[in-house]
């Protein structure tokens, strides 16, 4: 990877990225309050299971097809050749269908709201940086013609960021998984509580698995995968019922 691309990748996974990821625990808060996650070893086992069999793996596998759909939309949007309008519509349709399918994988309303909020925040940031979605002269809901794009969730927005920043697979999948793990560890540092050194130790320990899963998922079809994150889904559903909460999910 060229130096400039590597630096852009660092920016995408920086905790300074203003998308609000720090305010979500994705069910960790429920597990900690229930006594299920009380130390670094338990957290590591949970994160490893999610990287191998959770919804985050399906989302990472979807980044390449999402980016392909976005690329087709972008390239055909301003074209003057016959068929450009049809190709743009096909790209939008593929994008919307896969984005909606991924969002439907998230059982909890809080998680779906999180995905949409973070996605819209990233899209707004990219617009401010000079990379609006195709058809940026119109509101999001009007850009897709017959296919209404009212919002894009986090994976699709992340794929658009990768396309704008010229990041290729498997670096994009690595960044997605790394950022997810970093946010989960950040939440655990405040919830367990977990010392910051233990948090950094855990991030280092998970690096080989992140690289392994990114390489595998970059070549996978997300629709051929399955999620075994039943426990995560139940924890996320229970978050709204907590008496007191630090996080939004």
Describe this structure in words.
By secondary structure, the chain is mostly helical. It has a single domain, classed as Urease accessory protein UreF (Orthogonal Bundle), CATH 1.10.4190.10. Helix 3 packs across helix 4, helix 4 runs antiparallel to helix 5 and helix 4 packs across helix 10. The longest helix is centred in the N-terminal third of the chain and has 23 residues. About 5% of the residues have low confidence.
User: In oligomeric terms, what are we looking at?
Assistant: single chain
**How does the helix and strand content classify structurally?**
mainly alpha
Helical residues, percent:
55-70%
CATH superfamily: Urease accessory protein UreF
CATH architecture: Orthogonal Bundle
Helix and strand pattern: HHHHHHHHHHH
State the end-to-end CA separation. Answer: 35 Å
Assigned CATH class = Mainly Alpha
Main beta sheet strand tally, sense and closure: none
From the alpha carbons, calculate the radius of gyration and give it in angstroms: 18 Å
Shape: globular
What percentage of the residues does DSSP assign to strands (E)?
Answer: under 5%
Low-confidence parts, pLDDT < 50 over ≥5 residues? Answer: 137-149
Count of all domains: 1
Quote the average pLDDT: 89
CATH topology: Urease accessory protein UreF
């Amino acid at each position: 990877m060229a130096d400039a691309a590597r630096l852009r990748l660092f920016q995408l996974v920086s905790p300074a990225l203003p998308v609000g990821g720090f305010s979500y625990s994705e069910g960790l808060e429920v597990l900690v309050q229930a006594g299920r996650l009380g130390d670094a070893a338990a957290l590591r086992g949970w994160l490893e299971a999610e990287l191998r069999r959770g919804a985050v793996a399906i989302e990472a596998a979807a980044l390449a097809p999402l980016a392909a759909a976005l690329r087709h939309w972008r390239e055909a949007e301003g074209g003057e050749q016959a068929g450009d309008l049809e190709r743009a519509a096909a790209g939008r349709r593929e994008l919307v269908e896969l984005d909606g399918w991924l969002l439907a994988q998230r059982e909890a309303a809080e998680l779906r709201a999180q995905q949409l909020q973070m996605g819209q925040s990233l899209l707004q940031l990219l617009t401010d940086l000079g990379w609006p979605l195709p058809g940026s002269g119109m509101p999001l809901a009007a850009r897709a013609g017959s296919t209404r794009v009212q919002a894009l969730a986090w994976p699709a927005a992340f794929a658009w960021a990768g396309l704008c920043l010229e990041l290729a697979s498997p670096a994009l999948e690595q960044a997605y998984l790394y950022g997810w793990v970093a946010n989960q560890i950040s939440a655990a540092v405040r919830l367990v509580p977990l010392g910051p050194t233990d948090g950094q130790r855990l991030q280092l320990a998970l690096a080989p698995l992140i690289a392994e899963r990114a390489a595998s998922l970059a070549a996978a079809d997300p629709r051929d995968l399955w999620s075994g994150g039943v426990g995560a889904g139940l924890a996320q559903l229970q978050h709204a019922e907590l008496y007191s909460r630090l996080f939004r999910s």
